[in-house]
Specification:
The protein is about 50% helix and about 0% strand. By secondary structure, the protein is an all-alpha fold. The chain has one domain (about 5-90).
Amino acid sequence: MLHLGDLDLAARWLMDRPRGDWGRALGELDWRCTAARAHVAATGRIHPDFGDGSVMAAILCETLRPGYAVTGVEREYLLALGTAAFHFSQNLPMQKQKPVPAGPHGASSSPYC
């Protein structure tokens, strides 16, 4: 399962790299997560280099630059966040949408419509 914290950390991790390397770096991160999950499944133990298979664990197993202050680079952060979100969304299974029940006037009963 991917959490918002994973995306936030992945965006900040990407910001440490040249923008042209983001695709390659995310592919390597996928490989690390897959290797860690396979190791956990086979041994019942956390991978010594890549953690438990989560995005956050794979990133935190690296030495990170201290202080990911976003101030002044909000545009770059949002670009990195969007890139990470799109990348990881490509591997998520599609879920069926649940129908929204009609309200008393035949319209959606959702308060957001």
